[in-house]
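Researcher: Re-running this chain for the archive, since the previous output was lost when a drive failed. Same request as before.
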Amino acid sequence: MKSYVLQQLDYHVWANQKVCAYLKELSEEIYRKEVTSVFPTIYDAMVHIYVVDRGWLSFFEVGGVTEISAEYLERLKDSIDAMVAETAGIRIEELGQMMNGLASQLRVFVEQQEDIEAIYPSGGFNSRCIDYIQHIVNHGTYHRGNVTAMLRQLGHPGTPTDYGFYLYTLSQ
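Model: Regenerated structure tokens:
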């Protein structure tokens, strides 16, 4: 089971790297251009993936969250604002490096888990670690789809990052 989770995580990292590499080929003007979409810019969508992944790693490191109080939500908002501020003004290359560093930390976390099906609380909700990891991967896939749609709005085709293509590249 752990090898499957690691493969899913590897896919998530590969897809993020593909998008960042593609965006590096375009001008910064393209990935920072405001469009009418889920996010104001492509860059903001990539920052969102990074910030949420970091949030999940923090969640795992503290063993979940037993009580989601108003104070907790305020600290969470402040933490998100601080992470977004860390990414302000940097180019996609540096954001990609930050994503890679975070991916390494997530991988180490999964590798060190004795029980990948351990339960983590999230307020009144409990779920397995493996389910949260799957959510991280699905969340990234969803927002990389947003990036592709935004690129198409701007006249660019995007880059293939679907799971089937990832599996194909592994076989080559």
